[in-house]
Amino acid sequence: MKNILKLLAIGFFAFGVSACDPMDDIYDDLPNDDSTTIDNLNKVPAVANYTLADVDYEYSSNDSIANNKYFFEEAPAIDYLPEIINEVFLADVGAETRVTYNYLYPLDTVTKEYPHYEVDSSEYGNDYYNFSSHGNLYNLLSSKHPNAKRADLAELTYAWRSSGTTDTVTYTFACLEPDEWTITYKLSSEEYYSMEQSYPNFSNTDDPKRYVPVFIETLSEYQYAQPGDRAYIVYVVYGDEFPHILQLEKEQYQWKVIESAYPKTASLTANGETWSVAPPIDFVTTTQTNDREYTLTSADYEMVGNGQYGNFDNESTVIEKISTILKANFEDIEVGQVFLVHYKFYSGAVEDRSINLEAIAKE
């Protein structure tokens, strides 16, 4: 800030000594202490989609977010993402953006294992009674476990066709997100012994992150892995109720353990002064009974450029402007909610009007 003020001072001085500079009139119109202009010097207009860069996290007032470059349960995006975006984008009235950020979303701690299941012939969806695509497998898992959460495990026995041969195989699958599954590799008893463990598990004093990245180099399943490929290894630690999942990614010459930061996306809306997390929604007129009721204030009209008279005077922009106002004032809007909104409209005379608007998912 001191450097910015210094540069501004130099700029004012330079223009002051140049009697013929055409910018004089512009600077004459600026307030003597325009803190808003100074605060916005390094900001740009919002873009539709944005992914936080490492340097952006440093704008957070939470030290853990700033240092680790991710949000987490005790410091969620709804509380700490807006302050970062306030430093990146101008908070123009009605501006919207979708921001992708890192969230510490544990994958390693399993909390649920579904019972072992053998796929029935009717579930393959073809006349060959086998799977040849992991996508079809994952679709089956999503249909059987629609309420699965991240790090849930499911073990399947099924017929798998590859290179002209069909075999009956059994694998464990991990849920990454609702309706998103991945195949895993479950360590066998013999493989623990090969990693110098005395029992068919890791001891609670050994770190699997040290053993597993080296061990999977010996597995045929991963011998042709390319940089960027991922592996999910299921392992057991002595004394723990549930198994764990280790997520790895192939680098150029070795495997690297991936911590549990996971990309998520949030929608934000600006009200002219600041940003807030808001659902990606639109509003449409409806005849449904309202859940909520709101009367526009003077500040609301000011927000959307109608502050001089405190009313609307253009039928075609009413829904758009009220939508902007609702999203700026209510951070907890849910799809399906209906707002009864009272506002003033000028059509030769000022009259009171009302409109029912339903929140719908934004396309």
Mean pLDDT across residues: 87
Class of secondary structure makeup: alpha/beta
Helix content: 25-40%
Q: In percent, how much strand structure appears in the residues?
A: 25-35%
Largest sheet: 4 strands, mixed
End-to-end Cα distance: 40 Å
Which strand order does the major sheet show? 1-2-11-12
Low confidence ranges: 1-32
| Number of separate strands | 16
Identify the overall geometry.
elongated
Could you state the order of secondary-structure elements as H and E?
HHHEHHHEEHEEEEHHEEEEEEEHHEE
Number of helices: 11
The rounded Rg comes to 29 Å
Describe the overall structure.
This protein is α/β, with parallel strands linked by helices and 363 residues long. Among the domains are: 1-42, no CATH class; 279-361, no CATH class. It has helices at 2-16, 24-29, 35-39, 54-57, 63-68, 77-88, 134-144, 189-194, 208-215, 298-303, 318-329; strands at 49-51, 96-104, 113-118, 153-162, 165-177, 180-183, 185-186, 230-235, 244-250, 255-257, 261-270, 275-277, 281-285, 292-295, 338-346, 350-361. The radius of gyration is 29 Å and the shape is elongated. The protein starts with a helix and ends with a strand. Mean pLDDT is 87; it is low at 1-32.
